[in-house]
Design goal:
It is a single chain. The protein has two helices and eight strands; from the N terminus they run ββαββββαββ. The protein is mainly beta. A five-stranded mixed β-barrel has the order 2-6-3-7-8. Strands 4-5 form a two-stranded antiparallel sheet. Strand 1 (6-7) and strand 2 form a beta hairpin. The N and C termini lie far apart (39 Å). It holds the Pfam family GGACT. One of its GO terms (molecular function) is gamma-glutamylaminecyclotransferase activity. Belongs to the gamma-glutamylcyclotransferase family.
Length: 166
């Protein structure tokens, strides 16, 4: 799949876990010393994927198993090269997560009027980079699947911030 996701010096990224608004790592998305990330709107994966909360630190992972699980809800951002490099490092790419392109259905668009490349297509579907994983533990496939991650959700699996890990 050869999708072009770059918009000049900006790329579209879909976040579904701790980087969303109101979640423990959102602070990184608004920290301009790490680069620029502009919130564009809410979306969900066109294909279904398993979203699990796994490991000792209750980290959300979208497993790269298309057709299984749910349509995953998240947020769409445009990011500059500096923020994309930060996100690659933050997400442990390519070991822990892999940055791939996925088709995202736009649910709500707040992006400012701008170039046609930034606005969603009339179909409401756009290509975005997503951090998912093919390097997961086999037993994670047996975990409960979620469609919308919230670190303080009813699952009771509170995310452990990096600075609080042993």
């Amino acid at each position: 799949m050869g999708f072009i996701c770059y918009l000049g010096t900006m790329a579209r990224v879909f976040v579904y876990g701790t980087l969303k608004k109101g979640q423990p790592n959102y602070k990184h998305m608004i920290n301009t010393t790490k680069g620029i990330a502009k919130y564009q709107g809410r979306g969900r994966t066109v294909e279904k994927y398993p979203l699990v909360i796994a490991g000792k630190y209750n980290i959300p992972y979208m497993l790269n198993i298309p057709g299984t699980g749910h349509h995953i809800a998240g947020e769409i951002y445009t990011v500059d090269d500096q923020m994309l490099r930060f996100l690659d490092e933050f997400e442990g790419c390519p070991d822990m997560y892999q940055r791939t392109t996925m088709r995202i259905e736009v649910v709500e668009w707040e992006g400012k009027r701008g170039t046609a490349e930034v606005r969603p297509a009339s179909s409401g579907v756009m290509e975005c980079f997503v951090y998912n994983t093919s390097t997961y533990q086999p037993e994670w496939v047996q975990l409960p699947y979620h469609d919308n991650y919230d670190s303080s959700g009813t699952h009771g699996l509170s995310y452990v911030l990096r600075e609080n890990r042993d």
